[in-house]
Amino acid sequence: MDLLPKVFRTEGNITDFDSAQIYESLLKETGLNERDVARITELVVRRIINYGIKFLSGPHIREIVCSILSEQHFEDERKLYTRIGMPLMDYEKILETNLSDRVINPEKIHHWAANKISEEYAHLKLLNNEESKAHLAGEIHIDGLNYFDSRPLNQIWDVRSILKIGIPSFYNGASIFKIKPASNLNEAVSHICKWAAMIQSEFYGIHSFDFLTIFLAPYIRNLSIEQIKRTLRKLIYEINHLSVTIGRNIPPVSISSTPSIFEGFSETPAITPNGKIKGTYGDYREECVELFDALININNEVNMSVKSLKTPRFHIFLDQFWFNEYSKTKEKVWDEIEKTGNTYFSNFCNKKYKDKILKQISTSHFFNTGILQNVCLNLPRYAYISKSKDRFFELLYEKMLLCSEIFSKKYKIIKRRLESKHLPLCGSTINGFPVFNLDNQKFTVSFVGLNETVKFLTNNDLHESSDSFAFGVKIVKELRDICSDLSEKDKKPYFISENTSNKGLNRFIQSDLRHFKEQIEELNLDMKNPKYSNSVHFRNDININLDKRIKEQGQFHQLIQMGAIEYISVQELQENNINLYDFIKSICENSDLAQIKFIE
User: Fold this and answer.
1) What is the CATH number of the domain that holds 482?
2) How far is CA 190 from CA 91, 179, 281, 292, 429, in A?
């Protein structure tokens, strides 16, 4: 024992070296048999003596043990035994670096460090080698991997639950008071903002509050327009300040609205102040118009002062009725488009798209739904590897099966978190119904580089020939069909969606440049700044007839079940002398596009 150093323990005391603790921890943590554990322990003791080490700590001993486990080819056991953390220099870098392009504070520093640990944990413990390597190699991108062990992704909230019940109480070591239903518009907006702030701690992605003008319409009776505007201004400011309030960067919060009471809501019981049911939402048509008009005014006001407003995001639902009424409001919407272009438009003229959404939410039952997990596919990588269409589809199917295994793990993890009360808000109930219904959540598969995949396998971009476009449609249909088959097999909802992660998009091209540079050069990309096209979009650097683009992108939108967005340049419309109002009306009535957003 004289040859072995003292050990400084994490608790702060110094003790004698005890090889039995190494033996016991290996037996407990790795699953190795007693003979192998004894041999590893002996090798650790010999190495410490041979190297004449004068100081040891618990982490230091674990590093030595992990080194020997690797040398003895116990790689899986090493992953189970290793510590998770980060190099000292990495942590100091974030502490000392001056980030002039973003806000940094102590909470964000701690959040960043915790993210590193969580992501490492996911690779070491939650994902198997094939899944982990696929993500690290850039074959797939697991969205929000740093939250894979603890949080769902996105959620759409039915605000009627907040208006009817208030904010539910929950217990997780400390009692949290229940907040009663709002008695007026100001309280209703405060409750929505408070819920948005509270629930961010249990999700990774975007939160949406749909049909806000419909559900808040009963709350504006007997209020002046200035009172309404003041409260709506508070809504926007409170949501915009969430990142500062919470102390870390969060994804945008989405707010959708419409001036009309859709037919699906006309007979739906209306929730009014103090959570009371009074009439139906069809009784509040005038209030809905007034509220929408005020929201557009405030939206324009805010967008003029903050040109690049990232949150909240505004969505407007368009239908045929919208174009026949509300001319005064339309002019304000067109003005906002031309000046800032921060608003998204959902095409409710598309009956299939409209019916799908209204079927879920236009009932007296509260319907909170969302995306539990998304995995993005690197389609060009599969094309480079396969080199043929037939092999490409085989490889695509293999990656989809890999995604299904990842989704299955996510479902089981979140189920455990709900049972163990690690998601206290999601685990709370409203009138006996769960706030977060795990079985209402969806699994989505997004993808990057459809155009580049088609180009590599057909020698033409999507827009260059009918055959290449048809092949692109075939790929998306195949993804949809595989999702349908997996949904049937696993009894879980699988859907394809448009990719929303710039991180995944950038990771894929950077990884492929290292391993498939020659193949990328064949695509005729700008090699000074190469980029894959996102999802089903055409290349950004091409000139294509606008009508053809809208028609063909509309075909893809009909295949993508969880929403797709086409970006339209206001400048392009102006250069072609296309009237904005006529263009939007034509999009709504004659195209299959699901959503559009105007850009400069």
Assistant:
1) 3.20.70.20
2) 37, 11, 22, 18, 20
Residue 566 belongs to what domain range?
A: 369-599
b (16+ CB within 10 A) / e for 553-585: bbbbbbbbbbbbbbebebeebeeeeeebeebbb
- Residue whose pair of structure tokens reads 């991108």 in the numeric block: 141
The answer to whether residues 69 and 184 belong to one domain is no
- Choose among 405, 260, 252, 391: nearest CA to 330: 260
- For residue 130, being part of any structural domain is answered with no
Per-residue model confidence as pLDDT tens digits over 499-515: 988 999 999 999 999 99
Q: Name the burial class of residue 2, with classes exposed (0-12), middle (13-18) and buried (19+) by CB atoms within 10 angstroms of its CB.
A: exposed
Q: Is the peptide bond before 312 cis (omega within 30 degrees of 0)?
A: yes
Both 67 and 165 in one domain: the answer is no
Query: Residue 115: inside a domain, yes or no?
Result: no
Any idea which residue has 């095409």 for tokens?
A: 347
- Report which DSSP code applies to 364: S
- The pTM is what? 0.89
Burial profile 43-79: b = 16 or more Cβ within 10 angstroms, e = fewer: bbbeebeeeebeebeeeebbebbbebbeeeebeebbb
Contact 480, 496 (CB under 8 A): yes
Rounded CA-CA distance 393/387 in Å is: 11
Q: Is residue 205 situated within a structural domain?
A: yes
133 assigned to some structural domain:
no
> pLDDT (tens digit, 9 = 90+) per residue, 322-345?
777 766 677 778 887 877 778 899
Q: How far apart are CA 227 and CA 200, in angstroms?
A: 28
Total tally of structural domains belonging to the chain: 3
Which residues, other chains included, contact 46 with Cβ-Cβ below 8 Å and sequence gap of 6+? none
Q: What pLDDT score was predicted for residue 195?
A: 93
If DSSP codes are grouped into helix, strand and coil, which group holds residue 253?
strand
CA angle 310, 251, 483 (to 5 degrees): 120
Position 105 scores a pLDDT of 80
